[in-house]
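User: tokens in, sequence out, please.
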């Protein structure tokens, strides 16, 4: 569980173990859908001082100075976040559901092994949770190496 405290001049993040989470079957809380690896913007309720995130491995939150909350889907699943005022009173509770986006993807299955490809218009390997380790590692490694080359090019261009 993660807790974001919103002081007047910035945002601090503190990890904190709290009591048992509220039941997911409670009625009334907001339901928010976020796609994996994408962000959604929300306006925080007036008077919010602290944000508590149930499982930041599923959805990460960042608070902007203007009271905008950015929720980023990190892993498929469901979690919640709670907004508290300066007295620790609950202002709101929202449930966040993270799912894979509907895209132009292709899933190749070989027995129990899976490999994902993004096809728009040409199919390229992509990294997806649950993929066979060799495919996942190769796609992730190539992505990291490509990013490193791009960063080297950017750094060389700024030295002129």
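Assistant: Sequence out:
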């Amino acid at each position: 569980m993660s807790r974001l405290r919103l002081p007047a001049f910035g945002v601090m993040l503190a990890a904190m173990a709290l009591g048992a989470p509220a039941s997911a079957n409670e009625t009334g809380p907001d339901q928010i859908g976020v796609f994996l690896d994408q962000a959604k913007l929300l306006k925080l309720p007036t008077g919010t001082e602290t944000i508590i995130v149930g499982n930041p491995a599923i959805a990460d939150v960042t608070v902007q100075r203007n009271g905008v909350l950015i929720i980023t889907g990190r892993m498929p699943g469901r979690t919640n976040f709670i907004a508290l005022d300066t007295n620790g009173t609950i202002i709101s509770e929202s449930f966040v559901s993270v799912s894979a986006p509907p895209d132009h993807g292709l899933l190749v299955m070989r027995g129990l092994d899976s490999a994902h490809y993004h096809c728009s218009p040409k199919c390229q390997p992509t990294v997806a949770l649950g993929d066979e380790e060799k495919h996942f590692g190769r796609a992730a490694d190539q992505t990291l190496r490509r990013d490193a080359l791009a960063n080297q090019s950017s750094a060389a261009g700024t030295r002129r």
